[in-house]
Design brief:
The chain has helices at about 1-20, 30-45, 60-65, 80-90, 130-140, 190-195, 200-205, 230-235, 240-250, and strands at about 20-25, 50-55, 70-75, 90-95, 100, 105, 120-125, 145, 160, 165-170, 185-190, 205, 215-220, 255. By secondary structure, it is of the alpha/beta class. It has two domains: about 25-100 and about 215-255, Periplasmic binding protein-like II (D-Maltodextrin-Binding Protein, domain 2), CATH 3.40.190; about 105-205, D-Maltodextrin-Binding Protein, domain 2, CATH 3.40.190. It has a five-stranded mixed sheet with strand order 2-1-3-13-4, with helices on both faces. Mean pLDDT is about 95; it is low at about 15-20.
Length: about 260
């Protein structure tokens, strides 16, 4: 009887595999790619084959999704997605939340923000949402003040007080880790920090508060949110196995949303 049960189970798994749905999910390098690889392992026995596709910047994954080159992406927070849809007309929708990655301040030259020199150079991302996020972090850290009413997307033009006369260098987010040698400090997204060998817990000289509105999301084309594979993708991502992987691997530098 045990042998027959085993045979039936094996046949069921084989049948499920033969009917497996295949999707491509766009991610950015670092933790988003690493986590999605784990999600793929959980999803496969459930009948969902995930091809993890890495993109080196923050713009192409949404364009690829809008064009139908991929079925979903997992790399961005909601404010960034909202801005992309507004500016580029993408018809996309959030179907689930994933992780929060606090932005950090990094430097090759100083070990404390107290040591930032007068007129020092500070690198921030050049896209509106992550650039605005960096300025909000610096405001929380007491380095500057921003005009009221700027919301989540302030710019350097909204700075009303800058006691250290910080000079801001707006660069592509992926380039910031490689630019540390030319800057006094920089605000770097966790995925690019990790991909560059930086440890947010030990290498950052300051960190964004964990309580922030920048939870990352899984996104699909509008109209696809009720597809069966979407439910499987979210279930696999929100599984105890993936949560355990994140907690063990990132040791608090990446926080789960579930």
């Amino acid at each position: 009887m045990l042998r027959l049960t085993t045979l039936v189970s094996a046949l069921a798994l084989t049948a499920a595999a033969s009917m497996a749905e295949e999707i491509k999910v766009g991610v950015s390098p670092g933790e988003h790619a690493e986590i999605m690889e784990e999600v793929a392992k959980i999803a496969a026995p459930k009948g969902l084959e995930i091809d993890v596709v890495e993109f080196s910047d923050y713009v192409v994954p949404n364009q690829a999704l809008a064009d139908g080159d991929i079925e979903a992406n997992s790399f961005q927070h909601q404010p960034y997605l909202d801005n992309q849809m507004k500016d580029r007309g993408f018809d996309l929708v959030t179907v689930g939340t994933t992780i929060t990655t606090p932005m950090g301040v990094y430097s090759d030259k100083i070990t404390s923000l107290d040591d930032l020199p007068e007129g020092g150079s500070m690198g921030i991302p050049n896209d509106p949402t992550n650039g605005g996020r960096a300025l909000l972090v610096l405001q929380d850290l007491g380095l500057l003040k921003l005009a009221d009413g700027t919301g989540l997307t302030p710019t350097v033009l909204d700075i009303t007080e800058n006691p250290k006369d910080i000079r801001f260098q707006e660069l592509d987010a992926a380039q910031l880790p490689r630019s540390l040698a030319d800057l006094d400090a920089a605000l770097i997204n966790t995925n690019y920090a990790l991909a560059s060998g930086l440890n947010p817990k030990t290498d950052a000289i300051a960190m964004e508060k964990a309580d922030n509105p920048y939870v990352n999301v899984i996104v699909v084309q509008q109209g696809k949110q009720d597809e069966a594979w979407v439910k499987l993708l979210i279930e696999a991502y929100h599984s105890p196995e993936v949560k355990g992987f994140i907690e063990e691997k990132y040791q608090g530098s990446v926080l789960t949303s579930w």
